[in-house]
Amino acid sequence: xxxxxxxxxxxxxxxxxxxxxxxxxxxxxxxxxxxxxxxxxxxxxxxxxxxxxxxxxxxxxxxxxxxxxxxxxxxxxxxxxxxxxxxxxxxxxxxxxxxxxxxxxxxxxxxxxxxxxxxxxxxxxxxxxxxxxxxxxxxxxxxxxxxxxxxxxxxxxxxxxxxxxxxxxxxxxxxxxxxxxxxxxxxxxxxxxxxxxxxxxxxxxxxxxxxxxxxxxxxxxxxxxxxxxxxxxxxxxxxxxxxxxxxxxxxxxxxxxxxxxxxxxxxxxxxxxxxxxxxxxxxxxx
Length: 286
What we know:
The chain is mainly alpha-helical. Helices cover 67% and strands 1% of the residues. It has helices spanning 2-15, 18-34, 36-45, 54-58, 61-74, 83-92, 94-121, 135-143, 146-149, 166-195, 197-216, 219-226, 252-274; strands at 49-50, 128-129. A two-stranded parallel ribbon has the order 1-2. Helix 2 runs antiparallel to helix 5 (61-74), helix 2 (18-34) packs parallel to helix 7 and helix 11 (197-216) runs antiparallel to helix 12. The longest helix has 30 residues, at 166-195. The radius of gyration is 20 Å and the shape is globular. The model has no long low-confidence stretch (mean pLDDT 88).
């Protein structure tokens, strides 16, 4: 129970700071801009849109990359050695402090994903239908040339409609985005302990950039490369859409197992390193 309380306190400490506020403002502005063509389409057809547009925005490379950069930014204070954390470490001990920071990474990731999902809906209000059906407007957008005519910033993938309901796809997308964001944060925490903060940020940035390589590689190699690039898995809305006859997105059980195993391995390495790590406390704001 004490460990859970500390995870919650560590999470609040990082959620209520300038970096998180900047992330929130940028994501809201981006969602507003990306939804302008959709709002024009809603006006033209005079029909509300489904609330489940978040997965389609995450399937847009530019939006996804900016989201990943935001996650890197809010975790850029790794390895969390600000002076305020010095007192926490003295009270809790190294192991409990490290577990609290790791738990905080996932809580912040979940909050960031939920906030971003909410931001994708806000610009469309009040012309939104909150049902578990895809609705006529998204169906129409997927099977007509509306995306071209109105200059959509993201595509609506028709094939996904027969695979999942809006609630199912939203749940999968939020879960994947949360755990992949947590994976990035854990990778940064681990790298910062072994190689320093600059190396941690550079490594996370490189992992995020790889999504563009997966998108542009030949279909024969796309599936193989996608197996090892978690950032691309956040494009869950594309999972039922083949490219030149190839289904390149890894299956959900594989993605879940990969994230679980890799996160567990990183957690073990972090706890091992934290026993002997030298703490260089900083005056930097949290």
